[in-house]
Design a protein that fits this description.
With 101 residues, the protein is mainly alpha-helical. It has a domain of 40 residues. The radius of gyration is 22 Å and the shape is elongated. InterPro entries: BrnA_antitoxin (IPR025528). This is Cytoplasmic protein. It comes from Paracoccus salipaludis. It holds the Pfam family BrnA_antitoxin.
Length: 101
């Protein structure tokens, strides 16, 4: 089977027929989708993978009131306390949503 590559400029128009086909695929459970033409990635291929490498969430500036001891603990870790605070909150959010972050 020949390899097909698209760029945003060369993507074909999304027809109504194709939309219906994609909707049917979307409704299928993952274990019923035929992926036999896609080789499994090996552990070696995953070794260099970086989670979230291209994901950059939009930041929003806020004012928050923290307990003094909590802020002191965050700042005791040195520069980057706001990043650590965001990471702690993200882990809590992901845990509550039942996902791993």
């Amino acid at each position: 089977m020949p390899m097909v590559e698209y760029t945003p400029d060369t993507l074909p128009e999304l027809t109504e027929e194709r939309r219906k086909e994609l909707a049917k695929l979307d409704a299928l459970p993952a274990d019923q989708i035929d992926t036999s033409d896609i080789p499994e990635l090996t552990d070696e291929q995953w070794a260099g993978a970086v989670r979230g490498r291209f994901y950059r969430p939009i930041k929003q500036q806020i004012t928050a009131r923290l307990d003094t001891d909590v802020l002191a603990w965050l700042k005791a870790g040195g520069q980057g306390y706001q990043t650590r605070m965001n990471a702690i909150l993200r882990r809590a959010m992901m845990a509550e949503l039942g996902r791993r972050g």
